[in-house]
Amino acid sequence: ACHACTAALQLFGDDVNTIAYTENLDSMHKVVLAAPTEPKLLALCQALRDANIDYKLWIEQPENIPTCVATKPYPKADVQTFFKGFKLFK
């Protein structure tokens, strides 16, 4: 999750929401949710893409296995519907 978050911040560093998010380091909020299967993770990516939500799919190398999706910072109301049904990662 750390790699995907870091990559998303780098990729979308010039975005107004990313800038606002990183201006107050002590208040940055992240949620890590679990995708039960790779197909569900990839379906989430497709739904995000269809809605023009910017994200980074982290693919673990050298295994070439998709392991994590991180969106750029968005207001919760803009993205929460995509993550309904996913539970907190434990």
From TrEMBL:
Top-level taxon in the UniProt lineage: Eukaryota
Matching InterPro entries: Pep_tRNA_hydro_II_dom_sf, PTH2, PTRHD1
Pfam families for this protein: PTH2
Catalytic activity from the UniProt record: an N-acyl-L-alpha-aminoacyl-tRNA + H2O = an N-acyl-L-amino acid + a tRNA + H(+)
GO MF terms held by the record: peptidyl-tRNA hydrolase activity
UniProt KW keywords: Hydrolase
Enzyme Commission number: 3.1.1.29
Residues spanning the membrane: none
PANTHER family in alphabetical order: PEPTIDYL-TRNA HYDROLASE PTRHD1-RELATED
Protein's recorded name: peptidyl-tRNA hydrolase
Lineage summary: Eukaryota, Metazoa, Ecdysozoa, Arthropoda, Chelicerata
